[in-house]
Amino acid sequence: SESLEDQTTLSLHRPFYFIQSNLRYSKSDMDDGKKLVQLMCQKEAFYFKENTGATEEEKAKWLTSELGLVTKSLEELNLETHIFKFLLGCALNIGNSYNIKAEEILIDAAKMNPTMYEIWNELGDCIWKKGDKPGARNCFERALSQHRNKVSLRNLSIVIRQQESVSAKEIEESVKISKEAVSLDVTDGRSWYILGNAYLAQFFLCGQASNVLKCSLSAYGKASSDEKVLSDPDYHYNKGIVLKYLDNYNEAVAYFTDALTIHPKFVECKNELQDLKDQLINTHTLIHNKGKVKHKNMSLMLKKLKEKTSNQNALKVTCSNFEELNKEQNEDKVINCVLISSFIPNGRTPFICICLDADNHCFAVNLYNIDCGKAPKLGDILTIPYPNKMECNVVIDNKLYQFGFVRVDTPLNIMINNRKLSRDTLAPLKLTTTALT
């Protein structure tokens, strides 16, 4: 079956758990080192927002310089305690790259106080960066054995769904763990963001149901209360992905554009935005040109459509043409149409059918979760009960692209040539990720 490898580049900015937690140590011991690392964390989190147009290489160079200053200041303090070793490890671990010195120092800190769960959280994040996901998972579970906390829970949620081979059951576990993290602090935008990402993974791996995407969108909405989340280009990128697969193209374009405003050299986002533009332009063109089908062939297809659907009078719904459909769900209607053209946007979902109804109205059908090898073919008759009518109104390069379409979440909801489809036509997507989110 067809699969989609959706690359997301999402970074885990330091969640300040050593600041947010109620640490059991003297304030005088913590304050100086904590303030140094906190300031560096803050600068790193807002780097692209404050340095528009900067590259990843420029950020890495800045981080190295900043790290040198912070490390020197921390080393002037009392590093013999596990608290300051922990803070130094946190400073060395800031950024997306693995730092072996950070791992060594954090291991020392964990040996000095194995009951301090914050050390295990940071160590788990550090060794994740070198690709040791089982080791990272062990660290987060070790932290949770000491104290049930939101940082361990959301990081464990991430690691579970980023295994080499992940099952639907494990994705559901990831969502459940993310929900628990949120329940511990409903004001934490980062936890809401991670829950949104968990729902997004569930959509790709567990049937592409639009209600799951709506849960993701809701979680992202609550995450937006956190200024650090809003400064993260990955947040805007991921929200754009959700909106794209909800067929909310206007807002998807806006969020991809927002991500590129914060980080103009965000390559994955540039590619995603261009792919979406190409998809919309191609759909608009095929509808406008009626699939470039010759008049004679179109007449034969329409004749076949009327013949194949003439015996549907027994249906308890009204047969309608596209123009008669209401916007969104039509609970009392069915639409019959003939496929005159189709394409898969950059090899991805949805399978886009360009169709004609019996009154010669041309529109698109966005068909999700179908094995492309078993998808409808040219001339096939589609029967869509309770059609969900949607509209696209997007401006691309100062030109308006406007067309109507029907969204179908699963091929099990339709008939092809008067025959219902079996479950072997389903093709859930495969999601791969490239960072800890």
Mean pLDDT: 87
- Helical run tally: 17
Return Rg in Å.
26 Å
Helix content: 40-55%
| Contiguous runs where pLDDT drops below 50 for at least 5 residues | 1-27, 432-436
H/E topology pattern: HHHHHHHHHHHHHHHHHEEEEEEEEEE
Task: Summarize, please.
With 437 residues, the protein is an alpha+beta fold. Helices cover 51% and strands 13% of the residues.
Write up this protein:
The chain has 437 residues and is an alpha+beta fold. The chain has helices at residues 17-20, 27-45, 47-50, 56-75, 82-92, 100-112, 117-128, 133-146, 150-161, 168-184, 189-205, 210-223, 227-230, 233-245, 249-262, 267-288, 295-308; strands at residues 318-320, 328-329, 333-343, 351-356, 362-367, 381-385, 388-396, 399-408, 415-416, 419-420. Strands 1, 2, 3, 4, 5, 6, 7, 8, 9 and 10 form a ten-stranded mixed β-sheet that branches. α7 packs antiparallel against α8. The protein starts with 16 loop residues before the first helix and ends in a 17-residue tail after the last strand. 45% of the residues are buried.
Task: Provide key terms for this protein.
437 residues, alpha+beta, 17 helices, disordered N terminus, disordered C terminus
How do the strands and helices of this protein lay out in sequence?
Blueprint lengths: L16 H4 L6 H19 L1 H4 L5 H20 L6 H11 L7 H13 L4 H12 L4 H14 L3 H12 L6 H17 L4 H17 L4 H14 L3 H4 L2 H13 L3 H14 L4 H22 L6 H14 L9 E3 L7 E2 L3 E11 L7 E6 L5 E6 L13 E5 L2 E9 L2 E10 L6 E2 L2 E2 L17
Parallel strand pairs: 1-3, 5-8
Antiparallel strand pairs: 2-7, 3-4, 3-6, 4-5, 6-9, 7-8, 9-10
